[in-house]
């Protein structure tokens, strides 16, 4: 197995900078996800690693092999990179059987018949598709085709596996099962993996670490917990899970805490954070972190309930305090018109601006 290092990777299409100075070190055996909205540069980054597009500058190395040294005229061609690749559309050859689909990359690599058959058996065994070796792709379900595509990417035992939205053609239930299964297989094989998705729940569930991207740039790199619990900016706080954002003004900022005046005239105590112009700030808090309380005190707020939504495992309430509107989530059904809530200081994050402004 091998690690992957992207250094200052930049990819331009004319005036568009699709990937802007990306720096990531994926450890050997790690499962790293590139996550971000459509058009943020995930696939372009992945394709550059695979050699399917041309990077403009920077470097790409796998183990001690340099695949791209910064010179666009001097890149290692895709077939020499020894990388397994699975796309959203499984791209199986329709006129070849499952076994023939797997044989092709091995024949390209001039692997003899006996070893080829052995490896096909092994790869189909890994994805639990051995009984289907002689079927054609159209005789398989979407989930089965996706497993065959994965087996085809693994059959020549690449040290690096690249997955571009591989589960997005599956229905929701199957997709959830497939991601658990995929992660188990990846851990068993210990193959270094880059996974591309725009689905934040999927990224949180499968990854060792997540690189959150927006407009070609990496906004944060961290474990799922770090990304969810300590978002680096308001874009990440908004894109991963959901957050309320309160406009405020910094009144006092210390080493451990800050005091912020909100638009309803009240003040809350938060961790310290950077301010924007004229001391303006945005306080982010997740709906499920806001608590119901019986007594007034620091960081409490009386709010009216404007809307109630039953979400199955929790209720979501749209609430208001003066001009401030936000959401809270709790398992309890609330009948009252107005309630007292507490905004726990430790779950607040302070940013200089709202998502979209940065
Ligand atoms: P994602 O995978 O995150 O949805 P992409 O990597 O496909 O995003 O695209 C990133 C940006 O690069 C987008 O603005 C897209 O329009 C642009 N782009 C991608 N491929 C090309 C291309 N071949 N020519 C011109 N622009 C491209």
Break the fold down into its secondary structure elements and pairings.
Blueprint: E1 4-13, E2 16-26, E3 31-35, H1 42-50, E4 57-62, E5 65-68, E6 83-86, H2 98-108, H3 113-126, H4 142-154, E7 160-164, H5 172-189, E8 192-197, H6 200-206, E9 209-214, E10 217-222, H7 224-229, H8 234-239, E11 244-253, E12 258-262, E13 267-270, E14 280-285, E15 291-292, E16 300-310, E17 315-321, E18 324-330, E19 338-342, E20 349-351
Parallel strand pairs: 3-8, 3-9, 6-7, 7-8
Antiparallel strand pairs: 1-2, 1-4, 4-5, 9-10, 11-12, 11-14, 12-13, 14-20, 15-19, 16-17, 16-19, 17-18
The structure holds adenosine-5'-diphosphate.
Residues 13, 16, 18, 36, 38-44 line the site of adenosine-5'-diphosphate.
Protein name: Iron(III) transport system ATP-binding protein
GO molecular function: ATP binding; ATP hydrolysis activity; transmembrane transporter activity
Family: Belongs to the ABC transporter superfamily.
């Amino acid at each position: 197995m091998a690690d992957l290092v992207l250094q200052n990777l930049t990819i331009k299409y004319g005036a568009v900078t699709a990937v802007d100075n990306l720096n990531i070190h994926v450890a050997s055996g790690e499962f790293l996800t590139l996550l971000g909205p459509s058009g943020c540069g995930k696939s372009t980054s992945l394709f550059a690693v695979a050699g399917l597009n041309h990077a403009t500058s920077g470097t790409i190395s796998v183990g001690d092999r340099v695949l791209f040294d910064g010179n666009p005229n001097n890149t290692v061609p895709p077939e020499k990179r020894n990388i397994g690749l699975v796309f959203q559309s499984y791209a199986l050859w329709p006129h070849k059987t499952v076994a023939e689909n797997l044989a092709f990359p091995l024949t390209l690599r001039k692997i003899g018949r006996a070893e080829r058959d052995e490896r096909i058996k092994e790869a189909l065994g890994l994805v639990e598709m051995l009984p289907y070796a002689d079927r054609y792709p159209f005789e398989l379900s979407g989930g089965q085709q996706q497993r065959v595509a994965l087996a085809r990417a693994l059959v020549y035992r690449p040290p690096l596996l690249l997955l571009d939205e591989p589960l997005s053609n599956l229905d929701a239930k199957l997709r959830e099962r497939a991601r658990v299964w995929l992660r188990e297989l990846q851990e068993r094989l210990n193959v270094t993996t880059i996974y591309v998705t725009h689905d934040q729940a999927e990224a949180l569930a499968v990854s060792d670490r997540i690189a959150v991207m927006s407009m070609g740039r990496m906004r944060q790199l961290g474990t799922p917990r770090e990304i969810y619990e300590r978002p680096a900016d308001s874009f990440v706080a908004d894109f991963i899970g959901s957050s309320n954002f309160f406009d405020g003004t910094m009144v006092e900022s210390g080493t451990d805490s800050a005091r912020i005046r909100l638009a309803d005239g009240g003040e809350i105590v938060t961790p310290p954070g950077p301010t924007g112009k004229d001391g303006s700030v945005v306080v982010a808090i997740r709906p499920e972190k806001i608590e119901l309380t019986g007594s007034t005190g620091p960081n409490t707020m009386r709010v009216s309930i404007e809307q109630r939504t039953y979400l199955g495992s929790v209720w979501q309430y749209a609430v208001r305090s003066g001009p401030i509107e936000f959401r809270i989530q709790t398992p309890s059904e609330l009948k009252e018109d107005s309630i007292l809530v507490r905004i726990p200081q430790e779950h607040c994050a302070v940013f200089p601006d709202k998502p979209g402004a940065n």
